[in-house]
Amino acid sequence: MKNQHHAWQCLAAAARAHREPRDESAPYGFANRIASQAFATRADSSWGLMERFALRGLIAACTLGLVATAYGFVNTPNDDTELAAGDVVGEILDLT
Fold first, then answer.
1. Where in the chain are the domains?
2. pLDDT at position 46
3. Region of residue 76 (phi > 0: left; psi between -120 and 50: alpha; otherwise: beta)
4. pTM (2 decimals)?
5. Residues 64, 62: Cα–Cα separation, whole Å
């Protein structure tokens, strides 16, 4: 009985120590396939075109806002006499 137990222990230890030699790296072309799938799902989206136009519209609106602000700062009158010179309502209401 002791001989069979020792043989079993040796076989179990050998089975635990055995490792099957496998290739641990990814298959050939795996990275390219994953990258192409990632970009393909984004291009198929119906929001893709909307996102592009929205981004361009945002850039155009910011640019026009900056231009309008700069134009307003450049064309502001320096003193109050120039400011009151174009005051049509003040001229009409000034009855004296």
1. 33-96
2. 67
3. beta
4. 0.36
5. 6
Which amino acid makes up residue 85? A
Contact 77, 83 (CB under 8 A): yes
pLDDT (0 to 100) of residue 52: 81
DSSP state of 15: H
- The token duo for 58 is 């945002």
Which distant-in-sequence residues (6+ apart) come within 8 Å of 83 by Cβ?
77
HEC profile for 21-80?
CCCCCCCCCHHHHHHHHHHHHHHCCCHHHHHHHHHHHHHHHHHHHHHHHHHHHHCCCCCH
| pLDDT tens-digit series, residues 33-59 | 888 887 775 555 667 778 888 999 999
